[in-house]
Specification:
Number of helices: 14
CATH architecture of the largest domain: Alpha-Beta Complex
CATH class of the largest domain: Alpha Beta
Number of strands: 20
Helix content: 25-40%
Distance between the termini: 31 Å
Largest sheet: 8 strands, mixed
Strand order of the largest sheet: 5-6-4-1-7-12-9-13
Structural class: alpha/beta
Strand content: 15-25%
Length: 418
């Protein structure tokens, strides 16, 4: 078992009865959409979210799926869990869990697609400490899908059947997260359905709903399959970013800095940021400013410091794409103080970022842990407090300073590009 490292399970074994007339010779996950098998778009989303391992739960024409997809895809390690008789979505998942490790467990229906932020969903799930959650999207007409009703707390309260009330509402997007031990307890033995047999029993019993304003495609009918090409052409990958700690990483460490005149770049920082910009990366500052919550200075003081930093960088020909800071004291239990993912998630939403392809650079354990929380590559720098934090966080990458971190990022990007 490898706790903390998610594995995705793609439910790709459906018979595709409704598509038989247009797909007589292939499983529906291999339906050609804009020149590619449909399942490749699902795997694109997993790779972009930083998921490293996936299992395809296959059934109908299982060998065809494995031949077409292979054992790896854009850095994803792929395994297969074929069923020898129809088991339904829950039964197929139960069989795959008996064969492969992974915790938490990310599950995707193989015949639907959303451009929701999967890395954000995973970070939120960890932050909530949840056992089970489903990703919900809003559509203009729920009658074809059935409606999911949630409470103000985010808990799933109940499900309305397909063909019921029409009109706008939240629906199940076919993307789920589970703690493995919880999932193993609730999955029944033998053929059964997640949607019909498992989820209704979990409503009001700890199942959470993650609300996303993302687009959604269910390609289970000939009509929706015909529209799939238009949908996938809108799947533009998000931009990669470098999330930068402020004090001790970009500027010199000053204890509870509030005076703009004390802002001083660490040597080489401006040129390092220029190199990162040249790689096409967004530059986003994310800083814990507990001095506000402790009453040492105000948010207006923080803004003044950031205005000074922007002015200094502008003279060097560098512009930051975003600045986010957490004003809360450590005991306020907010969702934005690093290593909690709140600032990174807000930046991803507002700037259209792909967290799985992004980087976090900082001088503390909380920066490394932020990278882990959102699926980004984290680099600890030895400036600021960094030299004393190596043993605390055991980072995968360590650099002497921001220029050194830029060099590591350049090498990683070259490797990604092959």
């Amino acid at each position: 078992m490898d706790p903390g490292r998610p594995r995705a399970f793609v439910l790709a074994g459906g018979l595709g009865t409704r598509l038989a007339a247009v797909l007589p010779d292939r499983p529906k996950v291999l339906a050609e959409v804009a020149g590619r098998p449909f399942i490749f778009y699902l795997l694109d989303r997993l790779a972009a979210a930083g998921i490293g391992r996936a299992v395809l739960c296959t059934g109908h024409l299982a060998a065809d799926v494995e031949r077409a997809v292979g054992r790896s895809f854009r850095g994803l390690e792929l395994d297969y869990s074929p069923e020898d008789r129809p088991l339904g979505t829950a039964g197929a998942l139960s069989l795959a869990l008996s064969r492969f490790d992974g915790d938490p467990v990310l599950v995707l229906n193989g015949d639907s697609l959303t451009d929701a932020h999967l890395a954000g969903f995973l970070a939120w799930f960890r932050e909530q400490g949840a056992d089970a959650a489903m990703l919900l999207v809003r559509v203009e007409d729920c009658s074809r899908f059935g409606r999911v009703l949630t409470e103000a707390s985010g808990a799933v309260a109940s499900f309305e059947e397909k063909g019921g009330a029409s009109g706008p509402g939240w629906i199940n997007a076919g993307v789920y997260l589970f703690r493995r031990a919880f999932l193993e307890r609730v999955l029944p033995q033998g053929p059964c359905s997640l949607e019909l047999d498992v989820f209704p029993r979990l409503a009001g019993r700890g199942l959470l709903g993650f609300l996303s304003q993302a687009r959604f495609l269910d390609m289970g009918t000939p009509e929706s399959l015909a529209r799939a090409g238009e949908f996938v052409r809108g799947l533009c990958p998000g931009a990669a970013a470098v999330f930068l700690d402020r004090d001790g990483t970009v500027i010199q460490e000053r204890h509870y800095l509030r005076d703009p005149d004390q802002v001083e770049l660490i040597p080489g920082a401006a040129r390092a940021l220029e190199r990162l910009k040249a790689l096409g990366l967004k530059l986003v500052l994310v800083s814990n400013q507990s001095g506000v919550g402790r009453g040492y200075y105000s948010t207006r003081d923080v803004d003044a410091v950031h205005e000074r930093l922007r002015a200094i960088l502008a003279r060097e020909g560098v512009e930051l794409d975003g600045i986010f800071f957490c004003p809360h004291a450590p005991d306020e239990a907010c969702g934005c103080r690093k290593p909690a993912p709140g600032m990174a998630l807000r930046a991803a939403e507002s700037l259209g970022l792909d967290l799985g392809q992004s980087f976090v650079v900082g001088d503390k354990a909380c920066d490394v842990d932020l990278g882990r929380a959102v699926g980004a590559t984290a680099i600890l720098v030895r400036t600021g407090y960094g030299a004393g934090h190596e043993a605390l966080c055991r980072p995968e990458h360590v650099a002497d300073d921001l220029p050194g971190a830029a060099g590591i990022i350049e090498e990683i990007i070259r490797e990604r590009q092959g």
